[in-house]
Amino acid sequence: MTNKNSKFKKNKSPFSKGLTPLQLIELDACTQCGECLKYCPVQEVTGNLAVSPPEKIRMFREFIKATEGLKAKLFNPKDIDRKLLEEFTKAVYECTTCGACSQNCTVGIFTQRLWPMLRKEMVRRGLGPVGTQAEMPGVIKKTGNPYNKPPEDRFKTWFPDDVKVYEKADIAYYAGCTGAYEAQPMVRGDIQVLNAIGEQFTMLPPEEEVCCGFPLFITGQHDMLEDLTRRLVGAYKAKGVKVLLCSCPCCVNIMARDWPVFYGKELPFKIRHITQFVADAIKHGRLHFKRGLKERIIYHDPCYLSRGVGVIDEPRAVLRSIPGIGLLEFERHGLNSRCCGAGGAARKVFHENAVAIGRLTIDEAVDKGADRLVLSCPACYVKVNEAMQGHKKQIKIVDIMELVAEIIKDKNTEFNSQESK
Ligand code: SF4
Ligand code: SF4
After folding, report:
1. What is the pLDDT of residues 236-267, one digit of tens each?
2. Mutate which of 37, 92, 101 for ligand 2 pocket (most atoms within 8 A of beta carbon)
3. Chain Cα centroid distance, residue 124
4. Cys bridge to 36: 58, 66, 101, 181, which one at CB 3.0-4.6 A?
5. Rounded to the nearest whole angstrom, what is the distance from the C-alpha of residue 184 to the centroid of ligand 2?
6. How far apart, in Å, are the Cα atoms of 177 and each of 67, 95, 103, 210, 250?
7. From CA 152, how far away is CA 144, in angstroms rounded?
């Protein structure tokens, strides 16, 4: 599973090289208490302790000790067995980077940030990434997206014909690769809702709307990140953009947290998730529902939206504003939500885990009596739909903006003639 194509560099250079002082302290701080194991989705479906936070931390500490500890300094740094390194690499990539362990860590280790940095170190040593993830930099360089799809087709199959995109505007919309190529109902819904609000917005031409860099960041392949960030930030800046909207939590995450670092300074615009913008529009009377929906729905918090950037209330505010809707909650929700299984670029290489984890979400949604499962992330959307195939329990899946667009889709009909149910 480890990257056979990459060149394993047998080196004795420090394992601690890419970590911040705080991350080194975090490694030391793990007490091996095991509390986080109760919340780990990979533990839940595999029971594989190698993937558990304390074991990954213990192993990495051992690597540091062997190469940088007192004995290594007095005598010679030890060679670390390649098989051990490969096992560690697999474990660190099998994790979905969901951050549930971080949320529940008794000493507050920020694992959602630590794991990608450990992956980066394994890439530096020629051991990571795993499977097809290694093809991503070349594919993104060639096509601008990690799916090897034609850049000119990025918006072709889903962008509504009747919506105008302005050359310049204060608001810009970034569709993102997964939405544009794999979860089209979601991005179509975003555009329909923006249009219904009456918001003038701009977009980059399809060939210029390249990958935000998250798949490269999360797999530890950082070489192109500065270039991608500069291209995108420069292009939106040239359009005079003040707010950049997107619906993919992973895009929002890297844009808000990491783009300023790769760009070298503060971004010239704000980053907002689509639910934040739409919740505001509803609050200020720019979007309202005259038609309702008599359904019980259950909302799944995407890890990188809730734990990642703290967007928890806004999607619920949008859903609660739909007349007639009954909003149910998962046992674990908000900051404590359970991963859908698709995170951390694991959804293709650890497909079976991802399907098994996705089915836990489906089962709970069905058991709670929900009519529909509402998602707000393209990776969740794709993976939970896949997990549904051939599964004994079935539920309709809908993206949050797809749902809003469905209710407001015929503006005239909806606002003038249809009453709330
Ligand atoms: S980030 Fe998620 S999948 Fe990875 S170890 Fe922590 S809880 Fe498990
Ligand atoms: S909860 Fe924190 S301290 Fe305890 S084992 Fe997990 S990572 Fe280590």
Report:
1. 999 999 999 999 999 999 999 999 999 999 99
2. 101
3. 23
4. 101
5. 39
6. 40, 22, 28, 8, 11
7. 10
Contact between residue 149 and residue 207 where contact means Cβ atoms under 8 Å apart: no
412 pLDDT exceeds 60? no
More confident call, 171 vs 17: 171
CB of 36 shorter than 6 A to ligand 2: yes
Distance 60 CA to ligand 2 centre (A): 14
Determine whether the shortest distance from the Cβ of 404 to ligand 1 is under 6 A.
no
Residue nearest atom 8 of ligand 2, based on CA coordinates: 30
pLDDT tier for residue 284 given thresholds of 50, 70 and 90: very high
Distance 92 CA to ligand 1 centre (A): 9
Instruction: List, for residues 324-334, the tens digit of each pLDDT value.
Output: 999 999 999 99
Strand partners, 297: 327, 372
Comparing CA positions, the residue from 326, 292, 322 lying closest to residue 418 is: 292
Give all domains of the chain, ordered by start, each with its CATH number: 21-128 (1.10.1060), 135-280 (3.40.50), 289-417 (3.40.50.11810)
Interval between CA 230 and ligand 2 midpoint (Å): 37
Contact at 8 Å (CB) between 154 and 208?
Answer: no
Q: Would you give the distance in Å from CA 376 to the centre of its chain? A: 10
Which segments of 214-346 are extended strands (E)? 243-246, 270-273, 296-299, 326-328
Ligand 2 centroid from CA 26, angstroms:
10
Please give the number of the atom of ligand 2 that sits closest to the Cα of 35: 1
> 38 is written with which tokens?
């109760």
Tokens at residue 392, please?
């004994």
* Structure confidence at residue 72 (pLDDT): 75
pTM given for the model: 0.92
Cα separation values, 176 from 173, 186, 205, 379, Å? 9, 11, 13, 11
**104 Cβ inside 6 Å of ligand 1:** no
More confident residue, 14 or 286: 286
Q: Is the CB of residue 106 below 6 angstroms from any atom belonging to ligand 2?
A: yes
CA angle 147–153–154, rounded 5-degree value: 65
DSSP symbol at 151:
G
Q: Is residue 97 lining ligand 1, measured as CB closer than 6 Å? A: yes
CA dist., res. 47 & res. 40, Å (int) = 10
